[in-house]
Amino acid sequence: MGYGQNAEGYFKHNNVPNPSQRFHLTEAYFEYKFSKAKDKIEKELIKDCELSGIRCPQLMLWIAEIVQIPEEVLQDAYNYIVKAEEELFHKKGINKGLLGADKYWKIMTENSHITLSEFRTKLKYLEICKIIKSSSDWSEIIANCQSLDF
Q1: 134 pLDDT above the threshold of 70
Q2: Global pTM value
Q3: What is the residue-wise DSSP string for the chain?
């Protein structure tokens, strides 16, 4: 969809230029979670695929895209978030790359009245996470995600 990230801010990982969303998920998100885990049990829980904890809009859109939810749903969610970002970050000169997900959503909610919960609902993101976690293979994930009622 062209809604990616650069390697600035919280996303500094050996200065990888134009990191892919796959890199973001596997190298940045899960590696970060592992580094913060307190013990072996917590690391096992992380490996059990805690996608529902992701708050990054780019990464949520990518996950929704790879499970092949309808293009019009993706486009609607993309337009929803990008329009608000244009108004808030670009016109006010705020560098969103330096915020991290928590500050990003706080600023979005306070200034644009767009919440993480609304964004997830548009994508049926939490349902997608449940499907991914409970499915036995990729074709089952795609079939079940395509059967969601959008």
Answers
A1: yes
A2: 0.70
A3: ------S-GGG-STT-SS--HHHIIIIIIHHHHHHH--SHHHHHHHHTT-GGG---HHHHHHHHHHTT--HHHHHHHHHHHHHHHIIIIIHHT--GGGTHHHHHHHHHHHHH---HHHHHHHHTHHHHHHHHHH-SSHHHHHHHHHTS--
